[in-house]
Design a protein that fits this description.
About 60% of the residues lie in helices and about 5% in strands. By secondary structure, the chain is mainly α. It folds into two domains: about 60 residues, no CATH class; about 55 residues. The protein is elongated and about 55 Å long.
Amino acid sequence: MKLELSKKDFRRLLDMVYIGNWILNSTRGEDRLTDYDKVETLLFHQAHQEGMEVLTEYEQGIAVPSRAFVEGGIHEAIMDYENNVFFDILAEDLARRDMNDAPIDETNYVELANRIDAYITEFETNGTDNILLDIDLSL
C-alpha cells in the first residue's frame, strides 16, 4: 500500500497514532496490544527517514517517539480529552445513581439528561471542589 501525505499531514498522523496508542496501551502494563506499538514504530521510523529526526529516538534499534515529541504538547491534548471524558462519565454515573440505577427508557430519559446537564454545569463551574464523600479513613 502506498499513501502520499504532505509533511504537515504526516505530522498530524504521528500525533493521532501516538494518541491512539497511548489510549490503548498506557494502562495495560505488560499486556500491551503490540500490533499498535508496531504501527507506531513503523510511522516514527518513517518520520526519521523523511527528515523529522527530532521526533524519533531509537531504543534497542526500535523507533519510538522522541522526548521532544512527547514533551511537545501532545499530552496536553490527551489530558484535555481525559478531563472531558472523566467529567462526562462521572456526571452520568452520578445521575444514574440519583435515579437508583433505574433502566433508562423513554419515560425517564429526559430526567437522566437533565441530571447529567446539571452535574456537567456544576463541574464546569467548580470542578470537583463541591464533591463530598462520606468515607471511613480509619483504615
